[in-house]
Amino acid sequence: MRILAIDPGPEESALLDYDGDLGRVLPKATGIKANAEVLQYLQEQDAFGANGPLVIEQVCHYGMPVGAEVFETVWWTGRFCEAAGDFIRVPRLTVKMHLCRSARAKDANVRQALIDRFGGKAKAIGTKKAPGPLYDVKSHLWSALALAVWAEDTQGGSRHGH
Model-level pTM? Predict the structure, then answer.
């Protein structure tokens, strides 16, 4: 199953194109991109529905005050979902529980769980001469990959639009 996953941000977002059948990140669309560029990419996906849903991190409230950046991220999240049409929003906590079995998991724990899943660092990331399936995954792309893997494991191709 092919999955587009987004870790949204207020100005830039991590867009990851993942092919679950091949077990690798597809570099064509993958990267940290300006939100306007991500939106344009989603709008240009004519056959998007045939490829699988957009999986996007759902911004959740944890009782703390938030600033303008969070509201801007929420606004972009809505625009991305509208452009994709077929989407699944999932809270970060759900993904952490799925991959690490702990609500206390940090980004480093999630990254390690993903590396382990793909065969350890040498096999998963590889080297410049012999890149692994996660070679191009950096920064916020790890969060986007976690979303894609969660969707692959739990959604089994079902599509929600919620």
Answer: 0.90
